[in-house]
Design brief:
With about 120 residues, this protein is α+β, with helices and mostly antiparallel strands. The protein contains 5 helices and 3 strands; from the N terminus they run ββαβαααα. It has a 3-stranded mixed sheet, with no helix packed on it. Helix 1 links the parallel strand 2 and strand 3.
Length: about 120
C-alpha cells in the first residue's frame, strides 16, 4: 500500500505470520528465501519504505531480523502480561464451558489450565 503525504510517497509492506513460511529441505528453503529478500530490501535503504513483520519468535527469524533492526523498532507481545493473561482466560473459559471437561474434577481442570497456560509461549 502506498500513501502520499506532502509530496512524498510512503510504501508500507506487511508480512504476516513469517514463521508459517515453510522450512523445507530445498536449498534455500522458502523461509530462507523470504529472509534473504528482506535483508536485501533493507540493505537498499529506501527512505520511504516501512516494513511490518509478524511472527512467532523462531530462532532463525530472530537472528536475521535482529541484525536488520534496532531494539527500539521491535515489539514482542509473547511475554507481555496482558497477552499471558488473555491466554490464561481463554483456556480457563474453554475448560469450564466445554461439555466434556465440565465433568472433570476441579483439580484436573486446574491442572490443564495451568499447564497449557504455562506452555503457551504467547500463542
Amino acid at each position: 500500500m502506498s500513501e502520499r503525504h506532502a509530496g512524498t510517497c510512503r510504501t508500507r509492506a506487511v508480512i504476516d505470520a513469517l514463521d508459517e513460511c515453510p522450512i523445507t529441505t530445498g536449498t534455500p528453503s522458502p523461509r530462507r528465501s523470504v529472509l534473504d529478500f528482506l535483508k536485501d530490501l533493507v540493505s537498499r535503504k529506501y527512505p520511504n519504505l516501512r516494513i511490518c513483520i509478524t511472527s512467532r519468535p523462531e530462532q532463525d527469524i530472530q537472528v536475521t531480523l535482529n541484525t536488520l533492526t534496532s531494539p527500539s523498532c521491535r515489539l514482542s507481545l509473547h511475554e507481555e502480561s496482558g497477552q499471558i493473561e488473555d491466554i490464561y482466560n481463554y483456556i480457563r473459559f474453554f475448560v469450564y464451558s466445554d461439555e466434556a471437561m465440565r465433568g472433570w474434577s476441579a483439580e484436573h481442570q486446574d491442572l490443564v489450565i495451568n499447564i497449557l497456560s504455562e506452555r503457551a509461549s504467547g500463542m
